[in-house]
Design brief:
Strands 5-4-3-7-6 form a 5-stranded mixed sheet. A two-stranded parallel ribbon has the order 1-2. It has 3 helices and 7 strands.
Length: 160
């Protein structure tokens, strides 16, 4: 049995939506493209056919990958957590860089839903590992590729 992978409720819902879209929209579209390309005749030199088959392979692989993630997921509802202000998986945390006074906000999420552009950092990232268990006003030392960075925890929020 594979290890369970943590996902927030929002992350699990997003994966389910993508699976549904792939199965109900993308898959039928590519099947129709393959049928149309077959109607053009000789398949050996039919670029449309080969491109559609390649797209079909990608879609089926993605569905299989996402189904695997969901089947091994441990979905954690952040709203139901009560950790008395401690940083745990799924929380949103406001931080300030002690040296530069730059403020950032991150949500600690599973590996499959991490997206730094949206402020979602992987639970296995150095910053998440440094923050776990911290409380407001605690200092977290992050071993970043560019050296050590110290962040003070300004707020911990349990929100979806």
């Amino acid at each position: 049995m594979a290890d369970k992978v943590p996902l927030t409720s929002r992350g699990a819902d997003a994966i389910r939506v993508e699976i549904h879209q792939l199965k109900t929209e993308a898959r039928p579209e590519v099947v129709a493209s393959i049928a149309e390309a077959r109607a053009h005749g000789d398949l050996k030199e039919n670029a449309e056919y080969h491109a559609a088959k390649e797209q079909q392979s990608f879609i089926e692989g993605r569905i299989k990958e996402l189904d695997g993630i969901i089947s091994n997921a441990q979905v954690i509802d952040v709203m139901s957590l009560n950790q008395n202000g401690r940083v745990v998986f799924g929380v949103t945390v406001d931080l300030v860089n002690v040296e530069t006074d730059d403020e950032v906000t991150y949500q600690l999420v599973g590996d499959y839903e991490a997206d730094i552009t949206l402020g979602r950092v992987s639970i296995s990232s150095p910053i998440s590992r440094a923050l776990i268990g911290k409380e407001v006003e605690d200092i977290a030392e992050v071993q970043a590729p560019g050296g050590k960075i110290e962040y003070e925890v300004l707020a911990v929020r349990y929100e979806a």
